[in-house]
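Researcher: Here's my situation. A collaborator sent me these components and asked whether they could plausibly form a single complex. I don't have experimental data yet, so a predicted model of the whole assembly would be a useful starting point for our discussion.
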Amino acid sequence: MTEKPRVALFVTCLVDLFRPSVGFAAVKLLEDAGCTVEVPAAQSCCGQPAYNSGDRKSTQAIARAVIAAFAGYDYVVVPSGSCGGMIKAHYPALFSDDQTMAEKARALADRTYELVSFLVDVMKVERVAARYDGVATYHDACSGLRELGVKAQPRKLLASIAGLTLKEMRDSEVCCGFGGTFAVKYADISDKIVEEKAANIRAAGADTLIAGDMGCLLNMAGKLERAGDTTKVRHVAEVLAGFTGPALGEPGDGS
Amino acid sequence: MKVTSRAFKTNARHALGDAHLQQAMTNLRSGFVERRAHAVSQLPEWEELRDEAVAIKKHTLANLDFYLEAFEQKVIANGGQVHWCRDAAEANAAVLAICRRLGARTVTKGKSMIGEEMAVNDYLEANGIQPVETDLGEYIIQIRHEPPSHIIAPAVHLVKEQIAQSFRDTHRDLDPARQLKDSRQMCDEARSVLRPRFLAADVGITGANFLVAETGSSIIVTNEGNGDLTQTLPKAHIVLASLEKVVPTLEDAATILRLLARSATGQEFSAYTTVSTGPRRADDLDGPGEYHVVLLDNGRSALLGGAFEDMLRCIRCAACLNHCPVYQAIGGQSYGWVYPGPMGSVLTPSLIGVEQAGDLPNASTFCGRCEQVCPMKIPLPKMMRHWREREFERHLPPRAYRLGLAAWAFVARRPALYRVVSTWGARILSYVGRARGRFRALPLASGWTRTRDLPAPEGWSFMSMWAARQAKRPAP
């Protein structure tokens, strides 16, 4: 590639609030892959909480802001299959009654990728330089898997990490029970689903759980921690970038 | 059937605390799911077959009036009759009129979800006619006075011991000391109890998996053969079918049949596929004296041409139920009406009104597995979202939830304001939670923190840290 692609990072609201290290890991991975990374200041959330609550008008308003903020880049990269799927698979359909906006949404969707699939499928990254001493199991978060086809890409890059062994859990493609507001509105059902997931994680015999979506990670980490389980829970970007500070839910310095 | 969909959350809570149900659901997770996956892996043309089946149904739905009238003409030509019924009341009246005319005292029944929609058993009983379910699962829930919990395996929420107890409670003329430990013994007992009922029945009622316009036939698939005895022995065979069951030709039915059993039970084909065409002819050795098709609309024609038309492609294989993490967690009775799981979460509000069933389309994580396994490629999550949008437009979600969402959306639309809120949100939450690294309780999130911790934020928000880092970098 003669010129570095100009990539805009869509941080996502959960990474912004809970886990900035995922954002910095994404920046590192993208820069290592030869991209120029920018973080448009005018970003907040992709709009899924409104979209999945049936509030189409608010979703459209948020989507308009995202479409405007992320226009003009070569690519838009998201460290989440769920938010990436929202932009790529759902934004165009939001404006079925507005030709101009629909075209802009389509243009954005065409340039938007989930982080790990972008690294592998677009930037043709074959390996990463990180090291991780441990046995990990990988949860296929639903939207990334079913809307964006993220399955082989993270496994390919994780396999290149020195010291890391990947052990598959049973039903890695089954939902963890997060589902956004579902986890609070139907907390009992959500808890039962994540209980099954936690049992499968434990049975895999891994010391680390990896996934590509913050929502699912918060849910699974929260369930494992309440049960006193010491499995470390990390976002795939952190592991690929070699960021191995406190895992999700572990005490940090809070600075 | 009594609707309890409004009590969905309470129903679900009871189901989560029901040890027998939870044990039975574990069996479902491994059984249906693995067998389906194996069957699909053995058929290289699976995806082409799905596309073909979708095209057949789309074409049929676009010309539904034509094919239904063609079907009726053929039924009449074969010596049968079609009863067009707008709703359950009309359908029940049609069934009762036939039974009365024939002086029927007992009616045998094969499995029919349309029968559940009509609550035809209750109706017949109230009118002095005894209905006897002959599908083993339906028979079990009939003697337990329960609604079905699954559209093809109605008693799947029960364990063997519960069924054995129900048999002992019901079959009181049998030896109390008899063994009822394994399913073979229970099957034999049901068979011996049902055999004289088949012979005594005046009318046999079955459902239909397909109505074939080309020949005027109805088709059922079963694994027990009960449907054949139900429809062949009595004076009349009544088929209960909803209008979207029609397909143009036998060839079309055969195409969809290749998807049905594989999706449902992981079989290549069900043990019995029975094609019924009219009453007994003069030179037939056996068969019913009369053949009636009670054709039920019950709100379906109103779905044509609208946001929910795709739902009419459903062939009731139950793959979406079997693969749904929510269904697996709570079973089918929690959904509170005839159709549970993802297909029920779309269809139930369409048929009984979203005011009655508002929770159903909301109680989904949108994991998308239902759409992935649906042989008819029905976009179930998309249609559940349509229902949520209609509920939101009508202000059906609780006021507090709507206000919270509006406040959040107000901020999310304004990135500058959003940055202030997220920066301070991250600061405050991490300050409070940093020692532990997580929260064991949080206001407004008690549903979550009752059973799960919530990991605490790391410290600053990403956007504020990024801004600080950029300020330190020399200008390019």
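Model: Some features of this prediction you could bring to your collaborator: The first helix of chain B runs from residue 8 to 16. The mean pLDDT of chain B is 95.
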